[in-house]
Amino acid sequence: MYFKASRRRGEYGVSMVIDFLLSNARLVLGVGGAAILGIATLALKRLIEHAGRAADDKKVEQKMAESWEELNLVSASPTLIKKGIEGAAIEPVAKAARQKKGDLCQQPQMTSLELQPQPESKSTRLQLCVLSLQERLQQYYHTRVVLPPQEVRQAQALALDICTEIQGFLRSRHPDMPLGEMSLGGSLLDDLQVVGADHACLLVPLQLEASLWHLVPGEETLLTHPLHWMVRRLNLEYFPRGQSYWDRYLVGGYLSSDAVVNMFNKVVMETVNWPSISGTMECLVRPLPGGPGLRLEIRPGNDPRAQGSDQPLFISMLPLLREEDVVLTAQPELTSPWVNAWHLSLYPWETRRLAQLDAADDGCRRRMVKILKAVCRLNPALRPLRAAPLANLILHLSDSESDWTEASLGARFQQCITELIGYLEQGALHSYFKPAVNLLSSLSEDQVDQMGFMLYCAVSEPEILLI
Fold it and tell me: Contact 257/342 with Cβ under 8 angstroms?
C-alpha cells in the first residue's frame, strides 16, 4: 500500500526511476514510509522541473543538491520514518507548502490592464497570510459548517409533516399494528448536521410483549458480532405463534429485521398516495426504490421535472426496538447477509457522552466533531470517513486531553490529524463503547491511500483542509 498523489507521473528519465521506487517502496518501508517517500519525491520532481527552466546553472545545481539531500534524509533509515512525521522526513513538504503560502502573500507584477482594483481577491490573499489557524477554524466553522437557522427549521418542519402523514396513514389502514409514537431523530435534531440540512431520520418504534420476546446481545449469538443483535421469540410451547402481531415476521424463531423492512416497504412506500401528499405539502415527495433501506426524497416544488437549485431533503424511515438504553434498528445494509440480525445503534451513546463532556468543562468537542465532518464531506479524498469514526476519535482523545476550551481549538485540530494518520496506519479505529468493533473496516486500500496522503500533507499546513 502506498499513498498516491493525484498528479500523473512522468514517463522518461528521472521520472521512470522515481515511479519504480514508489511502486516498490511499500515492500521495504511500509505504509508510512512509502507515503512520506512519495511526498518528498513529488517535491523533488517539482524542484527538478523548476530548475530545468531556470537560467542560472549554479542555482540549478544548488537546488538539485538540496533536493537529493532531502531525499536521502527520507530514505536513509526506515527507523527514522517510523519515529514520526515531524522530523526531517516531512521537511520537503513543509518547504513546498511554505513557498506556496509565500507566493500568495507576494503581490504579483501586473500589466496596466490588470491594475484594476480587485478588492475581493486582495482581501482573500491577505486573510490567507494573516489569519492564524485558530482564526481560520473559527471562520471556517461560521461560514462552512454551521447551518442557517431558517434552513434547519424548514427541513425539520418538512420532516415532521411527513412523520405526521405516515403515522396517520398507518393508524387508519393498520390499526392493529403495535407501534409507538413516531418521532424525528439523527444529526438534524441533535445540532450535529453540517454543510446542508439534507437528511433526517423518521424513527418508527415497534412495541413488543416483554414476556414473548428477548433481545440477545451480539456477543451471545452465533454471529458473535457486538453490533449484530437478535430478537428471540420466547415460550412458543405455551404461547404459540399468532399470540403476538410480530409473529408473522419470524424466521427460525427470531424476529427478522429484513422481513420487517420489506413489510414497511410494501405498506408505506408502495401504498401511500404520494402525489396527494405532494399536493398537500406543496412539494415533491417520492420514495427512492431499489435500495436496501426505506428512503423518501422531498424536493421543493411539486413538479417532478423541475430540477431547481434548492437541495432535496432525504428522510430515512428506521423501524427500531428500544429496551432501556439499548436501541436496535432494522438496517439490512448494515447487517447483511444475516436476515435476523438487528443493528445496535451506538449513536445515542456517543452523542450523549459528547454532550456530557462538553457540559462538564464547557468544552468544544461537539464543535470539533462538526468541523471534522465538514472537512471530510467537502474533501473528496476524506469523504469515506463517516460521522461515527470522527465522533469516536474525539471521545478517545478526550481520555488523554483535558483542555477542550475554545482557545485550544487549533491545537486539538492538529492533534486530530496526527491521530487519524496513526489509526489509518494501524488499519483500525476501535469503537469507544464497543472496542471489538473496528470503525475503519469498511475502507478499501485505495481509500486509505488517498486519505493518508491528504492528511500527511496537512500535518505541516493544516489550512489546506479548510479551503
Answer: yes
Q: What tens digit of pLDDT does each residue of 51-107 get? A: 555 444 555 455 445 544 444 444 343 333 334 444 444 444 445 445 544 444 444
- What is residue 233's three-state secondary structure? strand
The 10 Å Cβ neighbour count of residue 418 is: 14
pLDDT tens digits, 374-427: 999 999 999 999 999 999 999 999 999 999 999 999 999 999 999 999 999 999
4 within 8 A of 450, measured Cβ to Cβ: yes
Rounded Cα gap, residues 419 and 401, in angstroms: 12
Task: Give helix 347-361 / helix 365-378 axis angle, nearest 10°.
Answer: 130
Residue with cell 440477545: 216
Q: With contact defined as beta carbons under 8 Å apart, do 401 and 412 qualify? A: yes
Grid cell in block for residue 150: 431558517
The answer to whether the CB of 284 falls within 8 A of the CB of 307 is no
User: Strands 313-323 and 199-205: what pairing?
Assistant: parallel
pLDDT of residue 50: 54
Question: What's the start-to-end Cα distance of the chain, in Å?
Answer: 28
* Strand duo 294-300 + 313-323: pairing: antiparallel
